[in-house]
């Protein structure tokens, strides 16, 4: 039976690629394959979600039956560092997780480099890393780095897309990748071009800037399929990584590199709806004597759904949480501000619970929670105020 866009997901997904090309004879082969890959991904995601839910139900039933509380054991995730020690040093702006953030807010300048690593799985669909500028109306690909392993071409494709229209591709051969192994990618931001290394070997083609590097606001990751996934991401000034053989303390080098990072943009428009279970992560470079500095979740300009205000000594040594629905500040909720060290990085995480915000500073919950006064799903904007004296927010991301 000929296949068409009216075929079911199961029919299309179970058909061999060569047969699919015949079934959609009026379309180009690449269009057919991309369409089928998307259908297969949706079907696989649905099956994986059901399997995960079934596993969780079994686990919870076991806990109830045994009348035991969940054991507080860290969730240790595999990142591949044990295979290649020293390949990536952890920076203040590193993001390493089995569920790495797909959207990461950044600020890049000439002289910076973006480093990432991925776990390669044979048979994966194409996967990519994207440097994007972002505004209210469109997503703008300043640099699209697309990995297409065999049988999709065995090629790396670089391109730009300023307004839903791909421009001229630059292609390079994809180096040999081994199933189940960690691979490292470096994007060097030079004065006039991007240069890309895969496993310490430069691609034969560079990519000249078509749009300003300074406009890049987001790094977006797409993981591929079959367990292929990005497992680490860092961005920092070129050459700022600590030398693993150096006798200088690694933490000191990390803080020096963090000091060199530019502040993130004050204003970020969300491209998804916040909901219970999501987390907002941010990092600040703390300087003693700074004025208060903040993170704000807004519905629109002036409508503060959540105002998280850090007031270090001598401004009270307190964290203040509040709302302001465009008219006036409402009742404050306060908590003690944990000790902060001058010249060190401060990690902040805002957890969106079912009925409240919960805040961690440097891994520890603060002394109070903040119950929702307005729907968390109405948050459309995140703004930050950096403080003074070199204090600044240097990273921001959100995820499920």
Supply the key terms.
single chain; 400 residues; alpha+beta; twelve-stranded antiparallel sheet; 4 helices; 25 strands; globular; disordered N terminus
Shape: globular
The structure class reads alpha+beta
Main beta sheet strand tally, sense and closure:
12 strands, antiparallel
Share of residues in strands:
35-45%
The percent range for helix content is: 10-25%
Oligomeric state of the chains in view: single chain
Query: Which whole number gives the mean pLDDT?
Result: 78
**Straight-line N-to-C gap:** 41 Å
Number of strands: 25
Molecular structure report:
This protein is α+β, with helices and mostly antiparallel strands. Helices cover 15% and strands 36% of the residues. It has helices at residues 9-13, 17-23, 29-66, 250-260; strands at 95-96, 103-105, 112-119, 127-134, 139-148, 155-161, 170-173, 182-189, 193-198, 201-202, 207-208, 218-222, 229-237, 267-269, 279-285, 293-300, 303-311, 318-325, 333-336, 345-352, 356-361, 364-365, 370-371, 381-385, 392-399. Strands 2, 4, 5, 6, 7, 12, 15, 20, 21, 22, 23 and 25 form a 12-stranded antiparallel beta sheet that branches. Strands 1, 3, 8, 9, 10, 11 and 13 form a 7-stranded antiparallel beta sheet that branches. A 6-stranded antiparallel beta sheet has the order 14-24-16-17-18-19, with no helix packed on it. A hairpin with an 8-residue loop joins strand 6 and strand 7 (170-173). Mean pLDDT is 78; it is low at 1-6, 66-98 and 241-257.
């Amino acid at each position: 039976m000929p296949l068409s866009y009216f075929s079911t997901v199961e029919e299309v997904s179970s058909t061999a690629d060569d047969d699919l090309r015949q079934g959609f004879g009026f379309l180009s082969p690449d269009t057919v394959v991309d369409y089928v890959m998307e259908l297969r991904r949706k079907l696989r995601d649905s099956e994986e979600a059901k399997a995960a839910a079934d596993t969780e139900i079994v686990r919870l039933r076991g806990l109830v039956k045994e009348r035991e509380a969940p054991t507080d054991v860290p969730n240790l995730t595999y990142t591949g560092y044990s295979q290649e020690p020293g390949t990536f040093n952890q920076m203040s702006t590193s993001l390493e997780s089995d569920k790495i953030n797909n959207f990461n807010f950044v600020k890049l300048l000439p002289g910076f480099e973006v480093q990432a690593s991925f776990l390669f799985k044979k048979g994966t669909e194409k996967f990519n890393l994207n440097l994007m500028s972002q505004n209210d109306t469109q997503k703008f690909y300043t640099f699209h780095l697309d990995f297409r392993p065999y049988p999709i071409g065995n090629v790396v494709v670089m391109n730009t897309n300023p307004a839903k229209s791909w421009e001229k591709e630059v292609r390079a051969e994809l180096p040999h990748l081994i199933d189940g192994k960690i691979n490292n990618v470096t994007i060097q931001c030079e004065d006039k071009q991007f240069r890309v290394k895969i496993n310490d070997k430069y691609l034969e083609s560079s990519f000249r800037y078509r749009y300003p590097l300074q406009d890049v606001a987001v790094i977006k990751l797409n993981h591929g399929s079959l367990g292929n996934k990005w497992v680490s991401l860092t961005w920092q000034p070129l050459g700022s990584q600590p030398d693993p053989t150096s006798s200088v303390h690694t933490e000191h080098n990390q803080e020096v590199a963090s000091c060199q990072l530019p502040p993130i943009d004050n204003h970020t428009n969300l491209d998804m709806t916040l909901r219970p279970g999501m987390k907002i992560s941010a990092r600040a470079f703390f300087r003693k004597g700074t004025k208060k500095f903040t993170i704000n979740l807004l519905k629109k300009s002036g409508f503060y759904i959540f105002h998280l205000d850090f007031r270090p000594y001598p401004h009270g040594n307190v964290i203040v949480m509040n709302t302001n629905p465009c008219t006036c500040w409402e009742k404050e909720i306060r908590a003690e501000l944990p000790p902060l060290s001058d010249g060190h990085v401060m990690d902040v995480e805002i957890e969106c619970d079912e009925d409240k915000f919960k805040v961690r500073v440097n891994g520890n919950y603060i002394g109070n929670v903040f119950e929702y006064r307005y729907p968390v799903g109405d948050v459309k904007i995140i703004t930050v105020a950096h403080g003074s004296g070199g204090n600044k927010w240097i990273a921001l991301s959100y995820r499920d």
